[in-house]
Amino acid sequence: MAKDGKEMDFRLEAMLGELKGTLGKIGGEQAAEFAQAVYGAPRVFLAGCGRSGLMVRAFAMRCMHMGKTAYVLGDVTTPAIAAGDLLVVASGSGETESLVSHTRKAKKLGAKVAAVTIYPQAAIGRLADCTVWINAPTAKSEQETGVTSIQPMGSLFEQSLLLFLDATIVRMMELAGVSPAEMFQNHANLE
Fold first, then answer.
1. Catalytic residue among 95, 142, 144, 158
2. What is the pLDDT of residue 77?
């Protein structure tokens, strides 16, 4: 390992390049439709498993800072979803069984579904009213497409997901005319 940090610099540079390339492939219409769906929903429910679940939790927090009513599936304070609500599902594979089940149930109850996935043609993407495709390679897709990442497993998808969701918040701030200072008024104060 180099003592001067050049190896780490190279890795970070490569990762940033991967992120830029992946995020640059997200369709503008898909992104705009997604932001409008979240912005216009009376209540937003968020679901994801593993590291994708951590990214949607961060998005739920920012939605709350925006003044949106947002819930993460699985939290004990999450109420029943209803017609007109929005379920946001983040799933790299688009086939995670529990998330497919949540998506089907939400649709049955009249809620809208917005999906963010690597595989828009998978079950969750097919069920969703709005789907955003993040073209990030995973161990599974590398075998299918030959596109690779220097990062392990779904890291590139999860990082891209977080940045895409943060960009969605910036768009929602523009739509609502809300400033960071106004959002900070909703920040936790029992720290």
1. 158
2. 95
